[in-house]
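Q: What would this chain look like folded?
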Amino acid sequence: MSYLVVAMIRLGVVGLAGIGVVAAALVVTAGVARRQRRFAVVDATWPLLFVLIAWASVVTGDGSTRSWLLAGLTTVWGGRLAWHLVGRLRGAGEDPRYAELLEDVPPERRFAVAVRKVFLTQGVVAWFVALPLMVAGTTDEPLGPIAALGTLVWLVGLLFEAIGDAQLKAFKADPTTRGTVMDRGLWAWTRHPNYFGDACVWWGLWLIAAEAWPGVLTVLSPVAMTYVLAFATGARLLERRMADRPGYPEYAERTSMFVPLPPKRP
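A: My prediction, written as C-alpha cells:
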C-alpha cells in the first residue's frame, strides 16, 4: 500500500474521530441548554471542542511531538477561555445573539432551530478550524524553527486574550467606571484585544502544523477563524450593539478596530 494511501486513511480516521468528539460534546451541551432554557451555554463548550479534537488527533494519529505540542497549547488556551466563559455565564440570562436569532421562532420549535442554526453550525466551523490540529496528528516530522515561531505567536495571542479579558472584568467590577467605555490598557490600542488574541492563537497553531507537510494546506482554517472573529459573529456584531452607547463613537474614532495600533490623538 502506497504512502499516500496510508496517509489518506490515517487522516480520515483522525477526521472521523474529530467529528465524533464534537458531536458528543454538542449533544451533551444541547441537553444542558434545553434543561436551562438558555442556549448561551454553548459558548463555554466552544473552546473545549478544539481541546477534544486536539487530543483525539493525538490518540488516533501518530502521537508525534508536533501533535502533543498542539494538544498542550490548545488545552491551555481552551481551558482558560472555557473557565472565563463559565464565569461570565454564571447568573446571566440568554445571550442577545441567540435571543435575536430565535425571536420570531415559536417556543415549541426553538430547540430544534437552535440545534440546526447554533449547535450544528458551531460544530462544523470548529471541525474546519481545527484541521491544522488533525493534519498534524498524521505527521511525524521533527519540530523546527517555524514551530518555535508559531509557539511565540500563540503566546502573544494568549496574553492578549487573557489580559484583555482580565482588564475588562476589572473595569466592569469597578463602580466608578459604570456608564463609561472601557478604553484602558490593551483596550486603548484595539477595541477587541480578546478577539485579536484569539486570531493570533490560531495563526500560531497553524504555523506549528504548517511546518510539516501537508499542514500548510490548512491555511483556510485560521483565515476562517479570523473572519468569524473580526467580521462575522465577533467584533462586527459587538460593534453594532455598542454603537449607541454614550462615548463609544468617540472611542471608535481614536482606537483601532482589530489590529492593535497606537491610539489617535483627539
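Residues 3-36 form the longest helix (34 residues).
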